[in-house]
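Q: Could you fold this chain for me?
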Amino acid sequence: MGRDVGPMPEALRRRLVRLAYRYLGSVSDAEDVVQEASIKLLASEGVRDREAWLARVVTNAALDRLRQLKARRETYIGPWLPEPVVETESPSDRELDISFAVMRTLETLSPLERAAFFLHDLFGMDFDTVGETLDRSPAAVRKLASRARQAVKEGRPRFAARPADVERLLMAISAAVQSDSVDALAAALAEDIELISDGGGKVIAALRVLHGPMEVANFLMHIARKQPDGGWRFGPAQVNGGAGMLISSEVGLDTVMAIDLDTEGRVAAVYLVRNPEKLAHVVGS
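A: Sure. Below is the predicted structure, expressed as structure tokens.
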């Protein structure tokens, strides 16, 4: 058999970037990891299965980088959300789900649980190969993958939002500000709603996860009232595989928003990425 080496197809590159992103939650870090793996591939001899080989290299590099990022994450100010992935259309590869709900679930798993799950369930490696990659027995990685699989299943959003759902929430926020009343806005929110806002200590954001319709509605109104006289401008976008919104002020991109819904169509979760450092790649894309 000949070597499976050559320019990396764009579809494979995107798949690997999404894999690395699921470990790291950073678009730039994920792209760096895949670029390094691509360089290693060109310098390697005897590669038979390029996709599997690259998945292993990307996994090991991402795990190394996760260890380097550990201290920074532990001292992060307020809730941490991954950098938003903003796309022009919905991705076709649904198995590499990067919704905020799933990404937050992945953060609760150990790096090895994530790796076993990704390599076996998403890239089709047998547990013997996964065990060799992670320096664990096949039985051990089978258990790791099983725990991760169950957690991801439970952590998926109840119902993915459509663009109209996001627009409806924004209209409710605008109406609440204009009428100076949170009641109508709170009525659009699920009883068990939570809001996670990531400002990184650089802009206004809640320093904890907010719960309940009144607390969430009051915070959303507080943010809206703080906008300059020009107000907000809204642009629909695919955010982490689902319907979202780019919210800009007169000075530029202010917030990337995504939401999840409950069974009755009410907003069950709101994700606000406001840290300017996490929006830089969106502005430049």
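A (continued): The beta strands are 86-87, 159-160, 189-198, 210-211, 233-239, 242-249, 252-261, 267-273.
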